[in-house]
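Re-run with default settings, no changes from the original entry. Doing this only to confirm the output is reproducible before filing.
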Amino acid sequence: MYNEKIIVSSKPEIKLLLVDDREDNLFSIESILQRDGYTMRKANSGRAALKALLKEQDFTLILMDVQMPELNGFETATMIYEREKLRHIPIIFITAHDRGDENIFKGYQMGGVDYIYKPVNPELLRAKVAVFVELYKKTHQLMAQEQRLKAVNQNLQKEIQERTLSEQKVNLLNQQLMENIMQLKATNEELDRFAYVASHDLQEPLRKIMIFGDRLASKYDELLGGDGKEYLERMRKASERMQLLINNILDFSKFSAASQSFEQTNLNRLVEEVLSDLEIEIERKKAKITVGNLPSLSVIPGQFRQLIQNLLSNSLKFCKADTTPEIKLYADSVKGENLPAFPGQVPTGDYCRIYVEDNGIGFDEEYAEKIFVIFQRLHSNHLFEGTGIGLSICKKIVEKHSGSIFATSTPDKGSVFTIVLPCDQRLINGATRTNGVPSHSPLMIKDTN
């Protein structure tokens, strides 16, 4: 697209073209007008005027004598106005003829805008020139304003086009994102179903391995030598670890597939049930567990019980050999705006924070996110048994409750696991969940400790 660029000065130069065949007349007019600060060019004939106009077209006004040899004023005016670029310049005729209507009409017909009669009245000349100079300035201001408006309009059109393109790109990216999310969701669901089915089907051959291993040990124990018994014991332990792994995979996958309802739950009572289940392990480790006053929240009771049990079991497992395990479970409340969130996510409303604090072996905080990844372990099976799924299940349960979980720790000084959940869970669940599945992303909280 071609755009003609016109630059209009804010303070235009006022240029007059004086045309007369007599030098004394040119000098007289120049003397009268020079105190007004005009720039003046002089031409002593019609042809000289035309020549001057070939070089410069930005004259404010032309003062031209009518009676000149060769080309008179009227003829010169006709030739001037034949050029498109010169038609905007007004011409005042200066004449010694009488004030007959015929000459006046002819002057106007040739394009003149006014008449001045000789002998020239200085004040009248200055006044008439001033009128056209002022008109020129106003016209120039309007032209400058027009150019500014055109520039603004062009910028607005360009901005609108850019915004339209940006919106189209954003819409396209959002559409692609939604498609990717749907595909990812379908893939995850398919993987969870596969994991569930595969883990379920693996139990039968594993069960047979364990049964026949037990029969082999009981029936042929006397025939087996020392190596045979050791190999059989290793097979038994490997089968038990595999069974634990399969059960944990089943637990992990069922939390995605299951659609369970939320219930208002007394968390203190729920924790009491968990401690009752862990009673033997607590007594074996001689652990001291302190439980503060916990709130009632709308949760999926079975899943939340699994969450608390996994975290307490984790603290019991990773205790120090020479120190009595001390585990504290307590809660507080916080406003959403006071929670540190990732960019683009600003939580609002009231939130509950539940802490599970221990004095165990701890870990380096550079692994604080890694511990929630499935099958990720910081310690070998020789030191601590496990499958690397327990904390992944915890993360999945918390996200299903529209919350977040993170850990802080210092090696050899213990760890703190923090669960952040919205207090108005029932309202969120009723408004944004379909069949127990949240329709928005889980709250993402950064640890700032």
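The longest strand covers residues 326-335. Residues 57 and 86 are 6 Å apart (CA to CA).
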